[in-house]
Each structure stands twice: as structure tokens, then as C-alpha cells.
């Protein structure tokens, strides 16, 4: 029963945080500490990969029309999950080259630094620092746009240029520091290179599908043997919970995106880091 409760709790945390700019990896590391779960337990490592795949499946289904467009399987220019249809008059159109430019830098660097990241980054102290630094980065990006120092030139995802996609990809490398947040680095990064908040979020979520599939799939090849027998229900419960929660979070975030600013998420990150440091780490 304790295992299933942990599966539900971790599934909820993964679904809530994977696509919001608050860092799912940071939350999972801190949650493991609070639940007294060994982060280096291979079964837990495998479980975290599985529930991350569930979150990926949720966003892939929500973005199914856009994915079909990318592969030329649909002529319809429809936005994510039929939420806020994009302009059909856009002169440019996002394609697979944009996606490749956005994901290759982080994938390459993650492969080269895999051992360093897994060895040093997954400790509580670096995560708390990363939460704070990432929050400052997000506030700075939003302030620069609001103050007019950076002009928004790409209102929709279809307006994003190859140069912008590549620069967003480079800034996504910041998320290799656990606690920084992949969506935080890319959404703020998009705004820094001239995309709107909505366009940056759309592109961030779309990029998440191949980059997380590649990363999770690679890790699962080393750990799939832990999904067996007595552990099976633990994995199934976590997968289902993560999928449902991630679906709800993505839909709500896209619906209310203009009302929830990056600064709000940054403040949450500061509070979380402070509370964890005061009440758990000390």
C-alpha cells in the first residue's frame, strides 16, 4: 500500500511539473528526500522514466494535429488540441528543421555530460540553487520584454525562424542542470530571442516530445528489467496518474497562459527552495 501511495504522489508531481517552468527533475529529487526514497535506487530511477514517458504521451496526444502537420499528414493548420487556433495567414510554417535545430544542442550536450550530470547534479543543494537561478533568469526575460528592450517579432509558433529555433535550442542546454527546468529555459529563451510567450510555450512543448522521448528511451534501455512481477502495479499506477495529471495541466496552462506569467512561477521556485532549505536541509 505504501508503494502505491508513493506511486500516486510521484505521478501527481511528475504530471504537475513536467511542462510547467518549475523543474520536474528538481521536484522529483526533493520529493524523494521527503518520502525517504533513495534517489539512486534503480527501481525508482526506472519508475521516474516511466512516469515521464506518460507525461510525454499526454502532450503528444494534445499536439497530435501539429505533429501530423510536421510530417505532412494533414493540411490543416490547427493549434494545440484545438485551443486558440493559429493564424492561417502566417507566411512561414514550422517544420522539422525548426524542431531539429531546437533539440540537437541539448541532446548532444546531454550525451557528452551524462555521467557528470548524473553524478553531481542530482543532489538537493545544487537543485535548490538551480531553482533560484532559473527563477531569476525567467524574471529577467519577462522584464526585458515588458520594458521594450526586446521586441516580440514572432507572435505564433509558425512565425519562429530557424535562427530563433537554434538560439532557443542553445538556451535549452541550461536545463541540463537539474532544477533549472526545460520548459523554463525554453519559454524564457524564446521570449529573449523575440517570440511571444504563447509561441515560446507552444514550441517548448512541441520540442519536449522528441527530446524527452530520446532521453527517456535511452535511459529505459538500461533499466527496463526493473519493470516486472511485484513492481508492475507500482509502475502502472504511476503511469496512469502522471498521464492524466499532465494532460489536465497542459490544457489549463495553454488556456490561461496569458494570466499566469513567468514571474509567478519564479516566485514559487524561490519559496520552494527557501522552505526546503529551512525545514529539510538544515
Automatic annotation (TrEMBL):
Reaction equation(s) it catalyzes: di-trans,octa-cis-undecaprenyl diphosphate + H2O = di-trans,octa-cis-undecaprenyl phosphate + phosphate + H(+)
Keyword entries, A-Z: Antibiotic resistance, Cell membrane, Cell shape, Cell wall biogenesis/degradation, Hydrolase, Membrane, Peptidoglycan synthesis, Transmembrane, Transmembrane helix
InterPro entries: UppP
Transmembrane segments: 44-63, 94-113, 125-145, 165-183, 203-221, 233-256, 262-280
First-level EC class: hydrolase
Primary location group: membrane
Top-level lineage group: Bacteria
Membrane topology according to the record: Multi-pass membrane protein
EC numbers on record: 3.6.1.27
One Pfam family from the record: BacA
MF-aspect GO terms: undecaprenyl-diphosphatase activity
Compartment(s) where it occurs, according to its Swiss-Prot or TrEMBL record: Cell membrane
Similarity comment: family membership: Belongs to the UppP family.
Misc remark: Bacitracin is thought to be involved in the inhibition of peptidoglycan synthesis by sequestering undecaprenyl diphosphate, thereby reducing the pool of lipid carrier available.
UniProt function note: Catalyzes the dephosphorylation of undecaprenyl diphosphate (UPP). Confers resistance to bacitracin.
Protein name: Undecaprenyl-diphosphatase
UniProt source species: Paenibacillus solisilvae
Amino acid at each position: 500500500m505504501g508503494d502505491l501511495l508513493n506511486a500516486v504522489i510521484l505521478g501527481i508531481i511528475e504530471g504537475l511539473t513536467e511542462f510547467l517552468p518549475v523543474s520536474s527533475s528538481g521536484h522529483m529529487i526533493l520529493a524523494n528526500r521527503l518520502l525517504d526514497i533513495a534517489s539512486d535506487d534503480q527501481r525508482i530511477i526506472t519508475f521516474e522514466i516511466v512516469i515521464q514517458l506518460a507525461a510525454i504521451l499526454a502532450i503528444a496526444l494534445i499536439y497530435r494535429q501539429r505533429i501530423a502537420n510536421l510530417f505532412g499528414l494533414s493540411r490543416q493548420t490547427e493549434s494545440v488540441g484545438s485551443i486558440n487556433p493559429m493564424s492561417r495567414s502566417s507566411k512561414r510554417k514550422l517544420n522539422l528543421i525548426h524542431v531539429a535545430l531546437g533539440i540537437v544542442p541539448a541532446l548532444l550536450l546531454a550525451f557528452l555530460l551524462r555521467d557528470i550530470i548524473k553524478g553531481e547534479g542530482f543532489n538537493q543543494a545544487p537543485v535548490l540553487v538551480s531553482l533560484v537561478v532559473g527563477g531569476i533568469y525567467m524574471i529577467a526575460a519577462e522584464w526585458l520584454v515588458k520594458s521594450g528592450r526586446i521586441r516580440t517579432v514572432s507572435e505564433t509558433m509558425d512565425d519562429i525562424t530557424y535562427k530563433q529555433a537554434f538560439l532557443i535550442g542553445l538556451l535549452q542546454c541550461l536545463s541540463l542542470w537539474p532544477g533549472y527546468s526545460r520548459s523554463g529555459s525554453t519559454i524564457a529563451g524564446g521570449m529573449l530571442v523575440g517570440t511571444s510567450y504563447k509561441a515560446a510555450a507552444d514550441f517548448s512543448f512541441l520540442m519536449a516530445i522528441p527530446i524527452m522521448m530520446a532521453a527517456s528511451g535511452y535511459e529505459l534501455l538500461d533499466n527496463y528489467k526493473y519493470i516486472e512481477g511485484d513492481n508492475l502495479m507500482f509502475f502502472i499506477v504511476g503511469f496512469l496518474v502522471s498521464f492524466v495529471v499532465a494532460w489536465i495541466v497542459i490544457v489549463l496552462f495553454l488556456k490561461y497562459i496569458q494570466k499566469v506569467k513567468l514571474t509567478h512561477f519564479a516566485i514559487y521556485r524561490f519559496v520552494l527552495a527557501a522552505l526546503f532549505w529551512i525545514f529539510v536541509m538544515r
